Predict the 3D structure of the following.
Amino acid sequence: MKRCYKRTRSDNSECKLTFGEEHIGIEGLHTRGEMDWGAVKSFRENEKILLLYTAPALFVPIPKHVCTEEQVTELRSLLLRKVKPVTQ
């Protein structure tokens, strides 16, 4: 996953994500916009990161260390309502 992420990443600046019931807000150094939940095809989670897949090899990484435990729990609940997790 790291190799795929590095290969497809086009910007190394910080990005702010805002999760709502209707969409995901995205704000970065050179970008600002919204992504509908329908664009997220699946997600995967481990102890360090959540990955929101928009295509088989494209994903939005969310490092858990930048979130509080409450935020991670809230995001996980939202993800379970909006998208299906990747099964292994």
The first helix runs from residue 2 to 8. The chain has a mean pLDDT of 85. The longest strand covers residues 49-55. The chain has one domain: 2-81.
